[in-house]
Amino acid sequence: MSAIGMSPARRRKRVRMQLVIGGVLALGAAVVLTLTALEENIAFFHGPTGVVAGDVGEGVTFRLGGLVKDGSVTQIEDGATHQFIVTDQAEDVTVQFRGLLPDLFREGQGIVALGELNAQKIFIADEVLAKHDETYMPTEAVEAMKRAGTWRHGEDGPESGPKSGSENGSDSNAGYGADQSTGDTQ
Predict the structure, then answer these.
(1) Are residues 79 and 149 in the same domain?
(2) Are residues 34 and 53 both part of a single domain?
(3) CA–CA separation, 136 vs 161, rounded Å?
(4) Which residues span the domain enclosing 25?
């Protein structure tokens, strides 16, 4: 039966159904495109134990966290590339980073680096993030050390051990004209 011979009510119903089907298809396409874009930008976290165990393949972008091993920081011959070892006290991963390391980067401190493994199983970092105070350690690094069985700072993890933000007295307004005892500005 052609659309010309249909009653007006039936024609409206058919147009409405076509619009609903078109809307559902457009929404589905938008969801698929969004999920694809998000999947490309997700960087999972792994500790040295997971990396050594083969949880991550070559060329896959991920975050590596742990402690910078004492005595491991060196500079490669080109003068711009730094090499160091990240450890969770159970396993070690060699890291290379070309560029300036953060001011707070030093041996024995927690870091998180974004990058990928090369064919020689060296982690090539595109970004290195260092801790921000004396007691802070990235949550991801704490979790990796717990999984490796080497976490020693606190019994229950970051809540009982290293603190961040206002929990350790480093309020975001500290030193910026705010009287910490009254909250009044100076």
Answers:
(1) yes
(2) no
(3) 9
(4) 8-38
